[in-house]
Design goal:
Elements: H1 10-25, E1 38-43, H2 51-63, E2 68-73, E3 84-85, H3 92-95, H4 97-106, E4 110-112, H5 116-125, E5 134-139, E6 151-155, H6 158-162, E7 183-187, H7 191-199, E8 205-214, E9 222-226, H8 231-240, E10 245-250, H9 259-272, E11 276-280, H10 281-287, E12 300-309, H11 312-321
Length: 327
């Protein structure tokens, strides 16, 4: 979403980016190393690029290779700055919605800290099988350059080529930042995007991702709601899956729900005679105990957003081949 009134502030944001480059380039902001290799998954966009589903898919793929995998995350939106391991039975307020979802869906240890290096130290201090090679996955790590990474995976989509820098647009960095990536991951159904990459002189590795939405069967109209960066994509996916949306409610990204929000959602169902509610996994996590307020007669259903990596075996072979101490 473009915010034209904020274009005058973009030069200030560019200046802040330039200052950070200077700090990193002169070691005023040191880059730290962990003992085990680090694979970063990130994006140029401030949200909605599919980082969380890819992190889950990558964690599961690496575990199938008998590797010990953990995830290091900032824990955006949590109400604490403690360096800690995520408890899958905890709440989004404690750990952040994305770390909590990853811990539940991927079944791997997830550690949160503002400085991901400290999360990594906690992970490496945890008891583990000494003979099992370990890998850290750095969630949303493309801009977190204070931590060394062995492989830098950058998710891109067509919107990134049309977007603008913050605060007028959603780009955290200009497109030239793709030069820091080792791998660029793009939607498999967008050959034009790969052509644009080649035109921009990208000669590195490209992964092709297939994104899917698993929607539970529902008879009758539904109230769809979410608090994610690209809510329109979610609503369009539900309609493509055959659901009739009687009402759609979009909350801010990473929105932590309160009782008033629940009242608005329930009111939308009563005014439209909806048969059920549908939301994303992240939103279900952020609802927490409020989810118990939905009745069996008008239940809350969850649409699962997932990512599949094309030619996964070859991709993982090449990825692990770049990681020191794995093979």
């Amino acid at each position: 979403m473009t915010r034209p009134l904020l274009f005058p502030l973009v030069p200030l944001y560019r200046f802040a980016l330039a200052l950070r480059e200077l700090r990193l380039g002169t070691s005023l902001e040191p880059v730290r190393h962990l003992r085990f290799p680090v694979v970063s998954i990130g994006s140029l966009s401030a949200g909605g690029s599919g980082k969380t589903p890819l992190t889950i898919a990558l964690a599961q793929a690496l575990m199938r290779r008998s590797l010990h995998v953990d995830v290091l995350s900032r824990g955006y939106g949590r109400q604490s700055d403690a360096v800690t391991r995520v408890d899958p039975s905890g709440t989004a307020a404690e750990f952040g919605d994305e770390p909590l979802l990853i811990a539940r869906a991927a079944g791997v240890p997830v550690y949160v800290a503002t400085q991901r290096y400290r999360a990594g130290l906690l992970a490496e201090a945890a008891p583990s099988e000494s003979n099992v090679p370990a890998v850290h996955l750095l969630d949303d790590g493309f801009q977190h350059r204070q931590l060394h990474r062995d492989v830098n995976i950058l998710l891109l989509d067509a919107q990134d080529f049309e977007d603008h820098l913050l605060p007028a647009g959603n780009l955290r960095e200009p497109l030239r930042a793709i030069r820091r990536a080792h791998v660029i991951a793009i939607p498999a159904d967008n050959p034009e995007l790969e052509s644009r990459l080649k035109a921009s002189n990208w000669q590195g590795t490209v992964w092709h991702l297939r994104r899917c939405m698993q929607v539970p069967p529902i008879d009758g109209p539904v109230v769809a709601f979410c608090g994610i960066a690209r809510s329109k994509q979610f609503f369009a996916g539900l309609e493509a899956a055959g659901l009739h949306l009687a009402s759609r409610l979009a909350f801010p990204d990473h929105h932590l729900y309160v009782q008033h929000d629940l009242d608005c959602i329930q009111d939308a169902a009563r005014s439209t005679a909806a048969a059920a509610f549908v939301t994303t996994e992240k939103d279900r996590v952020r609802l927490g105990e409020l989810a118990a307020a939905f009745s069996e007669s008008r239940p809350l259903k969850t649409a699962q957003l997932c990512t599949e990596i094309e030619d996964e075996d070859t991709v993982i072979d090449r990825l692990t081949g770049r990681l020191p101490g794995i093979l």
